[in-house]
Amino acid sequence: MWGTLAIVTDRSFSLRGVVVRRGDRAVLDDVDADIPSDGITVLWGPSGAGKTTLLRLLDRLDVPDAGTVSYGGTPLDDLDVLALRRRVGMVFQRATPFAGTVRDNLAVAAPDADDDAVRRVLQRVSLDAALLDRDADTLSGGEVQRMCLARTLITEPEAVLLDEPTSALDEGPRRTFEQSVLELARDGLTVVWVGHDEEQVRRVADRVLHVSEGRVTT
Amino acid sequence: MTVSLAGLAVSLLLVGVAALVSLLWRLGLELSILWAALRALVQLLLVGGVLVLLLAPGRSLWWSWLWVLLMVGYAGWTARQRAPEVPRLLPVAAVAFLAASAVTMAVIFGLGVLPLTSKTLVPIAGLIIGNAMTATVLVGRRLLEELRDKRDEVEARLALGQPSSQASRPYLRAALRSALTPQIETTKATGLVFLPGAMTGLILAGVDPVSAVLVQAVVMFLVLAAAATTTTVVALGVVRRLFTPDHRLVAPSRS
Questions:
Q1: Of chain B residues 168-227, which have a CB less than 8 A from chain A?
Q2: Structural domains present in chain A
Q3: pLDDT at A4 > cutoff 70
């Protein structure tokens, strides 16, 4: 557009020759994969196939025994890990509320966020702002997982990694969570979603990487 | 006041009482009790012998400092034996004991609460290091448990971009709190519930009770400071070993 400077950051991930071993077993065995910036990429496959391990590599919570993981074209080894984790958020399979209220939880992620920012982020995950002063331990399963997503989003990441975030949720809360993530992806957030529920994959995936026995295929 | 050898022999009856309880209840601890009593007696006699040498008139204070160093090494080794699950505890513990000794001795000797002589240095250092050793085992184990049980939470904090020092802080504080609480409770109950060892010993040895109380008060404060210093140094040291420099939590082994 005339007079406008469009800055498009590369938010793609790539893995080249990635190997992760646990003892004698290769959890990931010479994996090459590309995860583009746009939409929702689902890592799909049976339990124990190496999906979570792959996801953890993208946030450098684990490091590969061999090969290279890159974000935005830069190997993670060359990036400041704390800055990377602020750019790439992660929501875990088991909800991890910290001690205190919902507001306290958001403050752990963004101590300087003002009330407007806090309310906006709750809205993005369809959580009622009335829950702000509720103890996080008293939230329902669906609410607490959406709070965890909100806690990640308040750091304004470019990408989020979701490790089977709805596996412990009933159908209703599961659909609400999916809806929130679909809207986030439409707003331009890069999403990598680990899942093994075929129905859900069909509903949310823009593309699927099949992970099986430590290998990745498209 | 002194205890004769015959008196010591008679006091062994008390060990017999403990062994009898074990026999009556079929606890299977008789041999253990006898072994513990015998071992304590031999250790005390050996230490007594060393103290006679160290405290002999005209003996250089350097021998006492050497003894303190030996105690630091032995206590570090013992802490490691008691908490083998805590990675590389020995060097961390040794640094912690030295730090606790430096802080407490700076106050006790540096500010003239007690004169620095072999007679004061050896027992005071023993008190500091003994208590620091217990505190080390407590805090090391507790911290490992915290980080193991709350691993998901710790990683969620790391994933928010927190450095490991910040991500581990709530769990470090919980471990410190639980390691220091017994010491604080003991300090609170002193005098009301029980008469502590140093004071009992002094009164039995014929020192007037007021002097004994004053020494005991100093000892309690010293132990409190030693425990606080040690737990802090150990907790920080263990955290450093449980995280990589690039802020990943290394799986604490369950073995």
A1: 170
A2: 35-47+81-217 (3.40.50.300)
A3: no
